[in-house]
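Ops channel
N.P.: pipeline sanity check, posting one input/output pair.
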């Protein structure tokens, strides 16, 4: 039995005027501790699939099993989300922001507080506790968002293009930091991205998505060598460019056969 099982998921959005099939027959398995990426052009249903896995959206067909059980929406807060924008509350301090989830879940104890504060230090944000989000740079805010997400100890972390609004250097640094932090907790993670390099540098497995309707075109395993390296070092390894070429060609051939809508 795999940790997370996505079984024959299809989803159609219905509006008054039209219907749009965003996903068709998505089937995949994720092992505990694995770092998986959904890579594909915009509109291929990546965010839709994350919402379905998180239990925020009920699929038209299919089901999601977590440790063999159907996922019930909102239950136990087993899923953590990190988005392109940090969504920190501007009127709350960094400490209040990162402890908010625990407070809402009624799990704020001196122990849990100490743990989260230590994580904030480990992630390089010591001294920002009493500051407000606007006083932090984009990269720092995303780090605070990561601490907030991890504070509730989710079983799976969903990362929906969390680095795409950052400048390139900050993005590379944050990739390393997020990757090492998640590895140190052996967290299972799903990264949504349209950046081939990012997917290769961070993941164990990459699912390539095509559009109209969104479907998995190919699943690529990242080599053992690359998987061991931090994203920054992975980008400098010879396996990286070979894999980049493979994935690039695959995505390019898709563009040729699938018309724009
Ligand atoms: N709430 C919605 N209502 C109707 N169509 C939607 C809705 N959300 C997304 N879509 C459509 O579904 C498709 C997949 O969207 P999305 O999951 O956001 O893709 P991605 O994250 O890969 O860019 C797109 O064609 C999008 O326009
Ligand atoms: Mg999206």
């Amino acid at each position: 039995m795999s940790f997370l099982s996505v079984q024959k998921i299809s989803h159609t959005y219905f509006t008054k005027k039209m219907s749009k099939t965003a996903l068709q027959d998505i089937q995949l398995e994720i092992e505990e501790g694995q770092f998986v990426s959904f890579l594909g052009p915009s509109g291929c249903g990546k965010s839709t699939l994350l919402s379905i896995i998180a239990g925020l959206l009920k699929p038209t067909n299919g089901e999601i099993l977590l440790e063999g059980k159907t996922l019930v929406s909102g239950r136990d807060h087993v899923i953590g989300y990190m988005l392109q924008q940090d969504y920190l509350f501007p009127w709350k301090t960094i400490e209040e922001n990162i402890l908010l989830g625990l407070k809402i879940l009624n799990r704020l104890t001196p122990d849990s507080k100490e743990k989260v504060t230590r994580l904030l230090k480990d992630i390089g944000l010591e001294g920002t506790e009493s500051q407000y989000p606007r006083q932090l740079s984009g990269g720092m805010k995303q780090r605070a968002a990561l601490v907030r997400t991890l504070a509730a100890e989710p079983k799976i972390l969903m990362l929906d293009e969390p680095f795409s609004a950052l400048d390139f250097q900050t993005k590379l640094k944050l990739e390393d930091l997020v990757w090492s932090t998640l590895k140190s907790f052996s967290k299972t993670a799903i990264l949504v991205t349209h950046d081939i390099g990012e997917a290769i540098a961070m993941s164990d497995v990459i699912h390539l998505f095509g559009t109209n309707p969104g479907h998995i075109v190919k699943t690529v395993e990242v080599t053992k060598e690359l998987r061991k390296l931090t994203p920054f070092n992975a980008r400098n390894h010879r396996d990286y460019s070979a894999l980049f070429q493979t994935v690039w060609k695959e995505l390019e051939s898709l563009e040729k056969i699938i018309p724009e809508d």
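N.P.: looks fine end to end. Strands lie at 4-14, 19-30, 35-39, 61-66, 69-70, 79-83, 156-160, 188-193, 205-210, 215-221.
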